[in-house]
Amino acid sequence: MDWSTRLQATGSRQRQEAFPPSRFTALRRALRVDPKAYARSRNHLDGAVTALSPYVTHGLLPADELFDLWRRRLGLCLKDKLLGELAWREFFHHVWYHRGEAILQDLRPGLPGVRYQQSLPEDVRRAATGVPVIDATVRRLYQTGWLHNHQRMWLASYVVHLRKVHWRVGADWMYGHLLDGDLASNHLSWQWVAGTFSHKPYLFNADNVARYAPRLDSRGTAIDRGYAELMAIARSCIDVGPERDTPPPTAEPALYERPPAEPDLEGDPAYVDAWTAVIHPWSLEARVPGLRQIGLLHADFHRRFPWSARRWDFVLRRMRQICEAVYYGDLATLASCLAPPERLLAVMTLNPGYREGLALSVRGCLAPLPTALPELDAAQPSYSRWVKEQCRRNPSLC
């Protein structure tokens, strides 16, 4: 296929896709955001949300660039909901920066005496719980790889507190199917729901769903209870189980430790004694003219955290737009084949394996994490304390 035909095919496909791997699409969406509409309707499933998270996660539109764009163009501060929600992501990364892989374990004791399962019930996996909002959420996760924040919290709360599944099990499962999966944002949000990263568990009920997602009316199901009764269930070992009437089951898409149907990704890159940019899945911003760019996928990370075919496709299509070649294997070994470490360029990431491999391999220019707000030397115990310290250092933020 020649480039003209390929570009026409890409344009046709992007018109049909919810999330084409395009920096142009990301910037266009960012510039079209209406902060007032967002603040007014963001909690509703059909509200004016930004749908930018896959682009921020994968670095097509880095968080620092987006934050500065909205501050400069829209005159916003952290008191505005739009920047405030982006700041929550920054706070989760602040915790990740200081705690490392500890975010994958309970950060504080959960509800005492509750025994949690170490596997996800099949009816949840197959969108056949009989709770309309839960089943619709799982189907949407599988079909698009993206969920509204309320759907993420509702699903996590149902899985942990009503079905008695340990938050880590649910977090790993959701991460695998998300297009915007971010270990800090996803796993710390599940901990916040579970009560291991918050002062109390997050609960929701059918009235909450009726308010923000009326088309997914779930009255008459296990979530149609008052909060006192839901809290009693959360503190017990009771698994409410699926409803009596359940929809036909949905097949769960496979997750892959390596890109499916991509045999050409094996092997070591050809050595060239020239400046080379190491491109990883979280630094997919743009091509630098005149600079050799090589995409590297660190196998150990992806064995621990497999991805959906949709996410592999998103990342690889973008890598092939901006990279000379893409390789899969051990990051340190692959990077050692590229050029002297003094001639390697890369952007840092906190993702395990990638973080250590880049620190070991790149001594030329390892750019810092693209944080929207300055990293604080001391870990802050809560979002409010973190924001307070950011505002103390830079009053214009607030």
Primary descriptors:
398 residues; alpha/beta; DNA Cyclobutane Dipyrimidine Photolyase, subunit A, domain 3; Rossmann fold; 3 domains; 5-stranded parallel β-sheet; two-stranded antiparallel ribbon; 18 helices; 7 strands; globular; disordered N terminus
User: If you compute it from the alpha carbons, what radius of gyration comes out, rounded to the nearest whole angstrom?
Assistant: 22 Å
How can the largest sheet be summarized? 5 strands, parallel
Mean of residue pLDDT?
A: 93
- Shape estimate: globular
What is the domain total for the residues?
3
User: What CATH first level of the largest domain would be assigned?
Assistant: Mainly Alpha
- Give the beta-strand count: 7
**Roughly how many Å apart are the termini?**
52 Å
**Strand arrangement, major sheet:** 5-3-2-6-7
In terms of quaternary structure, the protein is single chain
Q: Report the sheet-strand fraction.
A: 5-15%
In which range does the helix fraction lie? 40-55%
List the total number of helices: 18
**CATH fold assignment of the largest domain:** DNA Cyclobutane Dipyrimidine Photolyase, subunit A, domain 3
* CATH-scheme architecture of the largest domain: Orthogonal Bundle
Low-confidence stretches: 1-15
| Structural class by secondary-structure content | alpha/beta
Q: Note the run of SSEs as H and E.
A: HHHHHHHHHHHHHEEEHEHEHEHEH
CATH 4th-level superfamily of the largest domain: DNA Cyclobutane Dipyrimidine Photolyase, subunit A, domain 3
